[in-house]
């Protein structure tokens, strides 16, 4: 699953109503833990994707001039810098019901 988000997710901070976050769990703290865990997953996936793409450019004899002249590598890095932050993606997924979560202590 690619973590590249849809353009509908804002790239900047958005003011949110706290009550929207606790609708599905009835507990704001539980909601925030779910969002934080999902944001970590997204962040790790994005990092793996970026490292995989940048690994193609790695060579054992890099010199300083080659590093600065590699335009493709710079464009890939800039693309990832422009993406929404993992936390914003996780909040959007949580609010739209795209995150599966369960609490075993509540199930008992």
TrEMBL record:
It catalyses: RNA(n) + a ribonucleoside 5'-triphosphate = RNA(n+1) + diphosphate. GO terms for cellular component: DNA-directed RNA polymerase complex. Its EC number is 2.7.7.6. Gene3D superfamilies: 3.90.940.10. Signal peptide: none annotated. Keywords: DNA-directed RNA polymerase, Transcription. GO terms for biological process: DNA-templated transcription. GO terms for molecular function: DNA binding; DNA-directed RNA polymerase activity. Pfam families: RNA_pol_Rpb6. InterPro entries: Pol_omega/Rpo6/RPB6 (IPR006110), RPB6/omega-like_sf (IPR036161). Belongs to the RNA polymerase subunit omega family. This is DNA-directed RNA polymerase subunit omega.
């Amino acid at each position: 699953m690619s973590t590249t988000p849809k353009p509908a997710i804002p790239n900047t901070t958005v003011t949110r109503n706290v009550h929207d976050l606790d609708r599905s769990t009835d507990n704001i703290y539980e909601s925030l833990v779910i969002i934080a865990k999902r944001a970590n997953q997204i962040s790790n996936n994005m990092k793996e994707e970026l490292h995989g793409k940048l690994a193609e450019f790695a060579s054992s004899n890099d010199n300083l001039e080659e590093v600065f002249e590699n335009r493709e590598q710079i464009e890939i890095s800039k693309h990832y810098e422009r993406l929404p932050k993992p936390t914003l993606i996780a909040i959007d997924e949580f609010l739209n019901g795209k995150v599966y979560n369960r609490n075993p202590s509540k199930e008992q």
